[in-house]
């Protein structure tokens, strides 16, 4: 019988809101790192936002990058510490709006880091403002009180499709609304760390995550929203797997 226990890297409870998905993501990160035996050489770049709590919870080295600059900070760390396992844990506002340039240039350079982007469709830590990249049409936020309108606020963008235009190693999207999807998300995150271990290039794993506090929903309602609404706009699955594609070409 398998024994399920807390990863040793988790040393303290974090301060996430009730029902938040960041804690689940944090655990899958720790499980993946420990399963691969990488825990002694980890340096993480977290955003000055919700992911900031991970610094208290995990027994790794951390640098809190300026808001939106996590990918740039992680790139710098990897350049001077190529032996380290460097990962980003940041939100969609940080990664796709304020830090869109930094995320894209890390991908263009194919920097061998593992970037984990939490897509909850909002700027969580600052009060729930609309996210130009991920807030769904019609969703009400503190900066789109009547709901997001396409004619004035644009349409949400599938950033994985955009980044897939660069020559990167791995792009995938997971979700957290049931055990099967949590397990799939973990496999994507683990793959991202395996790629870094093997010096294969840039990996980005996006995770559809609940934000009950800013969505003004219960945790159960938030999970249902991901399944019924958000996943239809942002489908889960693997978008790019360069190594697998090359192996397939060889076998063809």
Describe this structure as you would to a colleague:
- The protein is α/β, with parallel strands linked by helices.
- The chain has eleven helices and nine strands.
- The strands form two sheets. Strands 2-1-3-4-8-7-9 form a seven-stranded mixed β-sheet, sandwiched between helices. A two-stranded antiparallel sheet has the order 5-6.
- It is globular and about 50 Å long.
**Alpha carbon gyration radius:** 17 Å
Average of per-residue pLDDT values:
94
Report strand order across the widest sheet.
Answer: 2-1-3-4-8-7-9
User: Which stretches are low in confidence, meaning pLDDT under 50 for 5 or more residues running?
Assistant: none
| Quaternary | single chain
Note the run of SSEs as H and E.
HEHEHEHHEEEHHEHEHHEH
In one word, what is the shape? globular
Q: How much helix is in the residues?
A: 40-55%
Helix/strand-derived category reads alpha/beta
GO molecular function, one term: thiamine pyrophosphate binding
EC number: 1.2.7.3
Protein name: Pyruvate:ferredoxin oxidoreductase and related 2-oxoacid:ferredoxin oxidoreductases, beta subunit
Domain Thiamine pyrophosphate enzyme TPP-binding: 59-207
Summarize the structure.
With 252 residues, the chain is of the alpha/beta class. Helices cover 40% and strands 18% of the residues.
How is this fold's topology laid out?
Elements: H1 22-35, E1 42-47, H2 54-57, E2 61-65, H3 70-80, E3 85-91, H4 92-98, H5 100-108, E4 114-119, E5 122-123, E6 129-130, H6 150-153, H7 159-163, E7 170-175, H8 179-197, E8 203-208, H9 212-215, H10 219-233, E9 237-241, H11 242-251
Parallel strand pairs: 1-2, 1-3, 3-4, 4-8, 7-8
Antiparallel strand pairs: 5-6, 7-9
């Amino acid at each position: 019988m398998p024994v399920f226990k807390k990863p040793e890297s988790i040393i303290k409870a974090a301060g996430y809101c009730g029902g938040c998905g960041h804690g689940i993501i944090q655990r899958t990160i720790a499980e993946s790192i420990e399963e691969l035996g990488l825990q002694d050489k980890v340096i993480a770049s977290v955003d000055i936002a919700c992911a900031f709590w991970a610094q208290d919870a995990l027994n790794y080295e951390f640098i809190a990058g300026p808001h939106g600059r996590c990918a740039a900070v992680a790139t710098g760390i990897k350049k001077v510490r190529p032996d380290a396992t460097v990962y980003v844990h940041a939100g969609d506002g940080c990664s796709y709006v304020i830090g869109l340039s930094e995320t894209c240039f890390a991908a263009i350079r194919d920097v061998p880091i593992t970037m984990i982007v939490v897509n909850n469709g909002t700027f969580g830590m600052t009060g729930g403002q609309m996210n130009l990249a991920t807030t769904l049409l019609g969703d009400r936020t503190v900066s789109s009180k009547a709901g997001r309108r396409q004619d004035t606020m644009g349409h949400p963008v599938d950033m994985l499709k955009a980044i897939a235009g660069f020559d990167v190693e791995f792009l995938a999207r997971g979700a957290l609304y049931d055990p099967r999807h949590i397990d799939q998300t973990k496999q994507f995150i683990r793959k991202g760390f395996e790629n870094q271990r093997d010096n294969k290039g840039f990996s980005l794993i996006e995770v559809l995550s609940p934000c009950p506090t800013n969505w003004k929903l219960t945790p159960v309602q938030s999970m249902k929203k991901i399944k019924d609404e958000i996943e239809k706009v942002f489908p889960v699955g693997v978008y790019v797997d360069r190594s697998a594609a090359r192996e397939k070409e060889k076998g063809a």
